[in-house]
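Q: Could you write out the predicted structure for this multi-component system? I'm mainly interested in how the pieces pack against one another.
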Amino acid sequence: MSEITSLTLYELIKNIKEKKISSNEAAKSFVDRAEKSKKINAYVTENFENCLKLSKEFDDKPNFHLKLPGIPIAVKDLFCTNEVRTTAGSNILNNFVPTYESTVTQNIWNEGGILLGKLNCDEFAMGSSNETSFFGNVQNPIAEDLVPGGSSGGSSAALAANLTPVTIGTDTGGSIRQPASFTGTVGLKPTYGSCSRYGIVAFASSLDQAGPMSKDVKDSSILLEVISSFDKKDSTSIDFKRNNYSSELTRNIKGLKIGIPKEYRVDGMPDEIEKLWKKGIEYAKDCGAEIIDISLPHTSYALPTYYIVAPAEASSNLARYDGVKYGLRSSGKNLIDMYEKTRSEGFGEEVKRRIMIGTYVLSSGYYDAYYLKAQKVRQLIKQDFDQAYNKVDAILTPSTPSSAFKIGEKSNDPVSMYLNDIFTVPVNLAGLPGISIPAGVDKNNYPLGLQIIGKPFDEQTVLNIAYSMEEKINYKNNITDWWMK
Amino acid sequence: MSKNNSEYLIERNDNVYEVVIGLEVHAQVTSNSKLFSSSSTKFGAEPNTQVSLVDAAFPGMLPVINEFCVKQAIKTGIGLRAKINNKSVFDRKNYFYADLPQGYQISQYKYPIVGEGNVILDMPEGQKQVGIERLHLEQDAGKSIHDIDPSNTLVDLNRSGVALMEIVSKPDLRSPDEVNAYIKKLRSIMRYLGTCDGNMQEGSLRADVNVSVRIKGSKDLGTRCEIKNVNSIKFMQLAIIYEANRQVDLIEEGQEIDQETRLFDTKKNETRSMRSKEDAHDYRYFPDPDLLPLQVTDEFIDKLKSEIPELPDDKKKRFIDEFKVSPYDATILVSDIDTAKYFEEVVAKMGKNRDMKLAVNWITGELFAVLNQKNIEIAQSPISAKNLAKLINLIKNGTISGKIAKTIFELMLDGDIDPQIIVEEKGLKQESDPKALEALIDKIINDNREKAIEYKQGKEKLFGFFVGQAMKASGGKANPQLINEILKKKL
């Protein structure tokens, strides 16, 4: 049974459709493995019993026309799931059970997916190592005491540890792509407006975007096809013609122009990242792409811009967690006292830090200097990409400036932690699609990822380039199941 | 202070002060559902029964603009002769309160949907134009209830998310009377448009009142105080009078006026400091990233323009031109859309041989008196326009006298009875047969010979006596005009 869990989503679907594996057998395999993998701490809330029951129901009345026929899937605990606790990795939502379903997860269940459980993440998706979660650190299956990245750290770890065939994360500044890079998996952040934000616990509304995380590129294309949809319940959802990403997937990228932005050669970038990038360029050439040097001149302003815009929106988005309506409520002498105690006890340090930053940059007297300026710079960053896309079809960069680090290594140094997002953040600010694919290892044998950034709504080209390069790179994780020993 | 105009001046020592007033009116948009959710807006429902996940700000819930509310705001803007902005932006106004579930109110701060416009007031001394600064859309908050539970505050979110229009005037108002006229005119326009019911008891119309004073003739504005959330015209007027006098007193004592937010205590009829400028909230406004800028095309606006009904100012002009109603009467008739509708229906039902003067007098006289007495609106009038028109026609064609008409009017109140039927059943038809009346008058003169002689000798006021006798003898049914004519001839 153990090999069921190591199948790709595509293989699992095929086996289920060919009735070689039942949905219930698949669910059992993942549940069994999860029971032996508690040490990873991937799950915040397990939905195992219900998943086994629903998989049985699927097998009794199978529908093989669905895109995810009876496939058990665990999701990041930022997606609201009807009658299943949703915490966003925070104490303040420790007891919160939604009565509604996010559009993205609903799309998955509509296509036959079955919820395995809710995966750990940084508190309100604020973090790059999953260390800000109220529910504890997550182990990277690559090696003990290594962070799985963040904020979708539970998702990347579950995927790499074969606890779920595929998963979804959310990406505000790199929260899908960076953990994918740290765990040797694939993570795609779609164009802003592709996947509905309805029912996703908001971090920074103008940047948040849900996306697939998978073992290979093809699986991401299958899942993207399911989750990407126009949704009237989200005013920022965009009604554009979506591709059949998986059936249109091709390795033929001959003649596509891929840009290499010189500004991504940042100071102090490790040699191995530089080497990886060069290797990536060679792979892209091997695939038939044309390599063009480009400039994205405002790149160095992206990180400071992001750390103004995202906390500003977060400070307002998180105001609703006040102990009045749902979630944690600490008792207080009066309303203000109750607010202060609830939010002091309910939020962790990183969340508080960002609320403080966000409140500060929006304050009168500082608004123009910070928030307004950041919005203007954001436009310039977007223009950089627009201009680049006059010349190229996609852009190739490293996903992160380093491989996964040790738990605790950076947790007391927020700025060094923020620097992790240096290559991913501009993509969110510009609202573009970007994918991280595993491309090699560092000296410790920890995985490293390459990022392909596309034009708005051109997920297909991004997927095609990734699909083509993936074949040439031929990366395989070497995971020893050390946590079971 | 003379009362034949609306001027309001305060005299202290040798100084004459005028008061400068600007209003921020919060008008609830007439709409079945809320500004960003599909919950009902019906007034008076059980607490927390009209609350969606969006209204209660559950995690992951997103606002979606209600197009109908946008149309209502634009229509109101058109009614205020204002500029409609093709692009407006919803901002978040951040503050914590128990009845504000999101922790912010969605409002329009920098870019409102409606820009500058104006409203015409009919004052005793003539018309006055009041400038409108802007109109923007925003969400209402819920309601905190402090007096049900001894130790807890209860929150009702039924109102949370209901669409409001905030209509900001320029500081053009100068007296409590003008404020009265302004609020009534705004309400009238919105009721004509069907964009706000203007019901102050239900809180559909409330205002923040900005008051400052200055020496009359000065061009500079004084330091203003804002009196928050006043919910009746009377309270607005009382608050202004109190506040203006308080400010004048301070100035006369050589003190400074603090720019501050004040509350009006309706029991003591005074304003009290709520918070000073230094304590003012920092609302940290920023564009709501959950909502795209609101774009409306010129075609969209033009289509709404074409749906705008005749508004009070135009209606008044037409009443004067077409119906030859006096400007004074026209102002009264158009002030409320239902009155205007009633009047127009009476006019239509009166037919060709209509008498406008009679119609106006009966509506603004007898009918208004009854409505006042019963404390009901004209829409609930116990007498329909159709039957009132019939009654007026019966007077006009001489079937009944004005006096009899009043009796019939009283009888009509009991179930909107057709006056024609009353006339027939009660035999109240006016006696207009000259021969019958001559006989009757001959008898009276005969019975009162001495008085007839006195009259002829010059005691002219005895004429009234004979009229009275004739009316009495006819049981009130004699045609008074004929009586007059015959009496003059015979005496």
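A: Regarding packing and overall arrangement: Chain B has a mean pLDDT of 93.
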